[in-house]
């Protein structure tokens, strides 16, 4: 259970650094760049810790899925990216796939 918690936090930090890239403006804003870098390192470190117990074939796709879902949702909320029925449908499919990987992992 600890590894799954670490993996979820790692995925949330992935969302943070992915969205943070937008705020760095090409790494020209020092504070945003520093915070984005911290989130990136934290995300990778927690992913690494989670993979001590979880299979990489499960952990990595779950981590990417959480980050992609979060970045897409925050893109719609923060940056006024399009909110369409098809985007929402595919984001739901992404979360179903993430849940399916967790359930079927045997970990």
Q: What is the CA-atom radius of gyration, in angstroms?
A: 15 Å
Overall, the morphology is flat
Number of discrete helical segments: 4
Specify the biggest β-sheet: none
Q: How many domains? A: 1
The span between the termini is 9 Å
Q: What's the overall average pLDDT, rounded?
A: 96
Q: Roughly what fraction of the amino acids lie in strands?
A: under 5%
Helix content: over 70%
State the oligomer. Answer: single chain
Question: Which structural class is indicated by helix and strand composition?
Answer: mainly alpha
N-to-C SSE string, H for helix and E for strand = HHHH
User: Which spans of ≥5 residues are poorly predicted at pLDDT below 50?
Assistant: none
Tell me the total number of β-strands. 0
SSE blueprint and pairings:
Layout: H1 2-24, H2 30-50, H3 56-78, H4 85-104
Helix pairs in contact: 1-2, 1-3, 3-4
